[in-house]
């Protein structure tokens, strides 16, 4: 069963990756580059300080950072346990797929997917009362995740599991944040 899932994952990846158009390569490389999202991170910080007084903003920010760091460490533990090669490092795929990046670490599961979903989910949960439009934040991880397939470094299964891990960590940290932050409300 696991081998069948891996086969479907690989086939879906090859199909989705082949939809890439060379004219859009620079766009997707820009989307997948973490540093290009710094303005979004700054905007999130500003939203916290606009929505809450400074102590609560700092408190929420610390929980957001803790959720991201925990997700990052968990991702690396899992990657080094499963040791799944990235599509760009699979010898039988190299001549079949479009490769725009060549990271050497492992694929399962996507750290980009997990970290972007933990941030987006925590931000939405913590700011939805103040900003009803905050749900738009989920466009960021969707673009981020699609870019990982486009540049040839993650299978769809990596993306889906990463997103689920990110949401799970966000829910856990948001629950703890709510319970421990009663005095700030």
Automatic annotation (TrEMBL):
Q: Where is the Phosphatidic acid phosphatase type 2/haloperoxidase domain?
A: 62-174
SUPFAM superfamilies, alphabetized: Acid phosphatase/Vanadium-dependent haloperoxidase
Q: Does the keyword Membrane apply?
A: yes
Q: Which UniProt keywords apply?
A: Membrane, Transmembrane, Transmembrane helix
Q: Which domain of life is it from?
A: Bacteria
Q: Which InterPro entries match?
A: PAP2/HPO (IPR000326), PAP2/HPO_sf (IPR036938)
Q: What is this protein called?
A: Undecaprenyl-diphosphatase
* Organism name: Salegentibacter echinorum
């Amino acid at each position: 069963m696991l081998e069948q899932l891996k086969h479907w994952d690989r086939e879906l990846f090859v199909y989705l990756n082949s939809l890439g158009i060379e004219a859009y390569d620079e766009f997707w490389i820009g989307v997948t580059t973490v540093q290009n999202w710094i303005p979004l991170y700054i905007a999130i910080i500003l939203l916290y300080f606009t929505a809450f007084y400074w102590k609560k903003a700092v408190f929420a920010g610390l929980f957001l950072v803790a959720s991201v760091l925990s997700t990052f460490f968990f991702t690396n533990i899992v990657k080094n346990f499963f040791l799944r090669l990235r599509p760009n490092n699979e010898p039988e795929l190299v001549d079949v797929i479009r490769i725009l990046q060549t990271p050497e670490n492992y694929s399962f599961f996507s750290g980009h997917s997990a970290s972007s979903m933990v941030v987006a989910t925590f931000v939405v949960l913590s700011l939805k009362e103040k900003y009803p439009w905050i749900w738009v934040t989920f466009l960021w991880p969707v673009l981020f995740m699609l870019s990982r397939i486009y540049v040839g470094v993650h299978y769809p299964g990596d993306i889906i599991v990463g997103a689920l891990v990110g949401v799970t960590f966000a829910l856990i940290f948001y629950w703890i944040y709510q319970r421990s932050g009663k005095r700030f409300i």
